[in-house]
């Protein structure tokens, strides 16, 4: 009996010593603060988008092909109705209604959500048309998506992602992107089928985009986006 009591006492003594040596549980708020700071250093913080505009124009070669096949471009209103007045310059201006911007590996990441307006392609030779609306720019993937005839989203094109330091002006809290968009194979096939043409080819130029985004000015952009220096000013 005495031997059993001595063994039990020894176990309790060792356990007490281990508990005393163990570090105290971390303060949850301190852990959260450290994680947030690490995220800012890594440039993973998302900066809210307060608004902006984007201009999408079809390139000259594609415009010429459209004209040769009787295809014209018209604007859509927020209800999906086609404007009676055709767009003479085959372009459309869309408002940016929301989203967030981040620094993803030194490139602009995040997402831009556009107004529900859009554009329509009308083929006078076949009598067919197609509507593109509800545009979303996936900046992290370099992809432009849109609803086709108010259906599910389709990746209509891809673009080269912009370097964050060159695209973000921390003084004015603005993001500016000037980029060409190439049509995807799936989008080319579906748009050609909808219009009854063979105009679009996979990887060919589809649109040129000039995007001007207003970021949340209350955010320290240099910290949130991990920008150590002011970007060089660019000429339009």
Structure, described:
- This protein has 236 residues and is α+β, with helices and mostly antiparallel strands.
- 27% of the residues lie in helices and 40% in strands.
- The chain contains 6 helices and 12 strands.
- It has an 8-stranded antiparallel β-barrel.
- A hairpin with a 2-residue loop joins β4 and β5 (107-114).
- The longest helix has 20 residues, at 2-21.
- It is elongated and about 55 Å long.
- The N and C termini lie far apart (92 Å).
- The relative contact order is 0.17.
- Residues 1-23 and 25-43 have low confidence and may be disordered.
Task: Quickly give the structural class.
Answer: alpha+beta
Number of helices: 6
Low-confidence spans: 1-23, 25-43
Please outline the major beta sheet.
Answer: 8 strands, antiparallel, barrel
Helix fraction by DSSP (H/I, runs of at least 4): 25-40%
**Cα separation of the termini:** 92 Å
Strand content: 35-45%
Radius of gyration: 27 Å
Q: What's this model, at a glance?
A:
27% of the residues lie in helices and 40% in strands. It contains six helices and twelve strands. An eight-stranded antiparallel β-barrel has the order 1-4-5-7-8-9-11-12.
């Amino acid at each position: 009996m005495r031997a059993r009591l001595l063994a039990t006492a020894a176990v309790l003594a060792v356990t007490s010593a281990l508990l005393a040596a163990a570090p105290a549980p971390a303060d949850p708020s301190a852990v959260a603060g450290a994680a947030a700071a690490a995220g800012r250093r890594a440039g993973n913080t998302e900066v809210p988008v307060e608004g902006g505009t984007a201009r999408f124009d079809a390139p000259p070669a594609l415009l010429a092909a459209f004209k040769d096949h009787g295809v014209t471009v018209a604007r859509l209103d927020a209800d999906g109705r086609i404007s009676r007045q055709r767009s003479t310059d085959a372009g459309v201006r869309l408002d940016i209604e929301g989203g967030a911007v981040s620094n993803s590996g030194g490139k602009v990441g995040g997402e831009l959500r556009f107004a529900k307006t859009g554009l329509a392609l009308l083929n006078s030779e076949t009598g067919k048309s197609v509507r593109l609306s509800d545009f979303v720019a996936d900046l992290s993937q370099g992809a432009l998506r849109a609803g086709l005839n108010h259906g599910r989203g389709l990746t209509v094109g891809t673009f080269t992602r912009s370097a964050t330091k060159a695209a973000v002006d921390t003084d004015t809290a603005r993001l500016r992107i000037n980029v060409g968009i190439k049509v995807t194979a799936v989008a080319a096939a579906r748009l050609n089928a909808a219009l009854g043409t063979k105009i679009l080819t996979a990887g060919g130029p589809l649109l040129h985009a000039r995007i001007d985004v207003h970021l949340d000015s209350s955010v320290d952009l240099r910290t949130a986006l991990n920008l150590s220096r002011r970007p060089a000013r660019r000429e339009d």
